[in-house]
Amino acid sequence: MSLKRTLNCASFLIAAALSWNWPAHGENMIPDEYKTGGFFIGCQAYTFRLYTVFEAIEKTADAGGKVIEFFPGQKLSKEEPNVSFDHNASAETIQKVKDKLAQYHIKAVNYGVVEVKDEDQARKLFEFAKTMGLRAITTESVDAIDTIEKMVKEYDIMVGFHDHPRQPNNASYRMWDPNYVLSVVKDRDPRIGSCADTGHWVRSHLKPVDCLRILKGRIISSHLKDLNEMGLKAHDVPYGTGVSDVSAILQELKDQGFTGNISIEYEHHWETSVPEVAQCIGFVRGYGTAKGW
Known about the structure:
By secondary structure, the protein is an alpha/beta fold. Helix content is 40%, strand content 16%. The chain has an 8-stranded parallel barrel, surrounded by 5 helices. Strands 3-4 form a two-stranded antiparallel ribbon.
């Protein structure tokens, strides 16, 4: 090959590399086999908080989800109602959960919302995430950002800062504001960003797509919700039937090259939500298929 042709090829490769949407540095990628409609969508186990971990896995599978996000302290199973599952769980309990996930071909991808305290507690938390093969941890512990960044670099596990709704009587709570979350994460390791809870943004009278754009490139995961109205009294409804504009949210996530998990955290009809959760997953499957994702 001539020198000129070699240089042209090299220039093309460099240009292509610069144009590609690379994942965050060191990201622990979720295997493509767990995608539905172009996204890794499943449940936050809190959707089934009235049930056990084992039942949450089963119900996620029944609804058509392929991934799950756990939360601290859920009871393990009907057979062992006095055993809780979290980052303090025994190796035996963790293995039981892994076996249950394998039985239903569900991938555990995230854990939270969990408090991060001192380095010893954080290390136990990240060791748990590593053992479970998780991609990320969800927290609101802004004060622990230095410890979190140290653990992220050491364990190559991502962290998303979660938002709850604006608290009218508590001005010190700022996580509802995507601009504040951005100020916390923007100068940190790229594996630190936002767990975008779209429902809580709607409860704070914010438009989710606008919030996502503010946090562009820093969306680690999402608690994707559609709500029946704006404001604190709103409740979850199946995707596409509320005010959240889920289609636009999905398009924005796809345009940003989002590679994290979408967790359905359905906080309505607690005992009978599986059909509505299935509608949410069906919406993403149908929309993504129509878009060719």
